[in-house]
Amino acid sequence: MVGVVDVGGGMRAVYGAGVFDYCLDRGIRFDYGIGVSAGGANIISYLAGQRGRNYRFYTEYSLRKEYMGVGRFLKTGNYIDLDYIYGTLTNSDGEDPLDYDAVMNSDIDMCIVATDAESGEAVYYAKKDYKRDDYGMIKGSCCVPIADRPYRYRGRLLYDGGLSDPIPLEKALAEGCDRVVVILTRPRDYAERETLISFLIRKKYPKAAKGLSMRAKRYNAQLALCKRYESEGRVLIVAPDDIGRVRMLSKNRNAGKYLYEKGYRDAEAISRFLKRGRGRK
Fold first, then answer.
1. Residues of the signal sequence (predicted)?
2. Which of the four pLDDT bands, split at 50, 70 and 90, describes residue 280?
């Protein structure tokens, strides 16, 4: 079984959008997908077969004041308006609706990783947990600490999945994948550094704050595991050699286009990886 993991990374996830559009153009099919943060949004549009949809979110809609910005933060306490992105735009009556029926009819399974803000533990939402026009698990998975308040969904307060499981390769293996494509949105040799801002949420959500402070250590350890499995031929790491001017909360159409096109080109390695795997059978 072939899996794909997209680690997200805010606006840097436009790189993964390019990877998945290449896969749709070439008819590349995965059996299982795991998305973290914006990586989940990339994967669900891939399951829907909606080529170019995520690119529009990163390079067009993100420029709107309704999407994210200081004004929204001052008004609501949330820099990123997750309800606008994964509700107003995404719902059946939205401007750019997700093809929910295509997602549910796809024989590709998936899950999305979020973090319980109160326990600090990873929460995995399977495709069966989705309901039409109810995309709270993506909202929670994309909820960046400090920038946004935790997102309340089905009795939980959720933060970004990257706090608890930034590169969920082990989850993919546990689900039965024997080969996995891992999409990073930093160069493959980039080492995360410990953040010093976890104190901003420590009082209300101490366990989530601990996860934020440990994120670098977890990411670096999981990346080392990916590289080990890559040396054995079980994993392919697809990562940009540089990210240009794209940052987590960037609002730059041309920078996004640059990173998207890089992802599209780099995805060619997936075709070769899958062919090698078939040759070993």
1. none
2. low
pLDDT tens-digit map of 92-150 = 999 999 999 999 999 999 999 999 999 999 999 999 999 999 999 999 999 999 899 99
Residue 139 near residue 151, CB atoms below 8 Å = yes
**Whole-angstrom distance, CA of residue 209 vs CA of residue 147:** 14
- Token digits of residue 156: 């939980």
For residue 9, report the phi and psi dihedrals to the nearest 5 degrees.
125, 40
Domains in the chain, ordered, with CATH? 2-276 (3.40.1090.10)
Q: Is 179 left (phi over 0), alpha (psi -120 to 50) or beta?
A: beta
Q: Are 179 and 234 in contact (CB under 8 A)?
A: yes
Question: Residue 25 contacts by C-beta under 8 Å, 6 or more apart in sequence?
Answer: 51
Question: At residue 101, what is the residue type?
Answer: D
User: Is the separation of the CB atoms in 114 and 123 below 8 Å?
Assistant: yes
Q: What percent of the chain has pLDDT over 90?
A: 89
Q: Sign (positive/negative) of CA torsion 243, 255, 85, 71?
A: positive
Rounded-to-integer distance, Cα 124 and Cα 171, Å? 9
| Residue 177 DSSP SS3 | coil
Pull the structure tokens for residue 191: 């080492």
Query: Catalytic residues, which ones?
Result: 37, 160
